[in-house]
Amino acid sequence: MESHIFQELCDYLRSRKLLENSRGVSVEEQLGMLMYMLSRNASYRTLTDRFQRSPEIVHRHINACINAITSLAYDFIKLQSTDAHFKISSSPLYWPYFKNCIGAIDGTHVPMMVNDNEAAPYRNRKGTLSQNVMVVCDFDLSFTYASSDWEGSASDVGVLNSTI
To answer: By the 8 A CB rule, do 88 and 139 touch?
Structure first.
C-alpha cells in the first residue's frame, strides 16, 4: 500500500472515531500491525516481536482495526438493486424468460503449480493441476462475487452448492 493511501485511511478512521490513539500506540501503528499481519500471514507472536508490544496489546489493537474496517462496509459497498436490468425489461425477446435474472454464473479451472506431496486434490479430470474458480457478474459486466477456494478435483456443483 502506498504511504499516502495508508495515511488517508488512518485519517479517515480517526475522523470517524473508529480508531483512536491509545497510550503509546498511534492509529498508524495499529493499522500497521493489521496490514503487516494480513500481508505476511504473520502470527501474533511475530507481531509482538516486530512491534515490541505485549500479546494482549497486539490482540486488542488488531481486533479494534478489524472492527473498524468491517464497519466501513456499509459506507463503501452498495448493494445492487434486485430489479430486472434495463436490457432485459425493455426487450420483449428476453423479458418473459429472464425477468428474475440478475446476473450470470460461470466457472473455470485456473492452472497452478503445487508441490508434489500436495498435488492430488488439485488434479482435475483432465489430469492437470488447477484451482476451480467460480465467478458471478451482473449485466453491466461487473464482478459481484468470486469463489476461488476449491481444488481442481472439486465438482462445479460442489462449488456452487457451497456458496448458495
So the answer is: yes
67 membership: H or E segment, kind and range: helix 55-71
Mean predicted confidence (pLDDT) in 19-25:
92
Rounded Cα distance between 47 and 39, Å, is 12
pTM given for the model? 0.54
- Determine the Cα angle at 160 with ends 157 and 161, to 5°: 85
- Closest by CA to 103, choosing from 133, 78, 139, is 139
Using CA atoms, how far apart are residues 69 and 7, in angstroms rounded to an integer? 14
Give residue 79's pLDDT: 66
Q: Whose CA is closest to 65, among 97, 93, 25?
A: 25
Structure confidence at residue 7 (pLDDT): 94
Whether residue 130 contacts residue 142, with contact meaning beta carbons closer than 8 Å, is answered with no
The C-alpha atoms of residue 108 and residue 123 are separated, in whole angstroms, by: 14
Would you state the cell numbers that stand for residue 70, as one nine-digit string? 468491517
Q: How far apart are CA 14 and CA 9, in angstroms?
A: 8
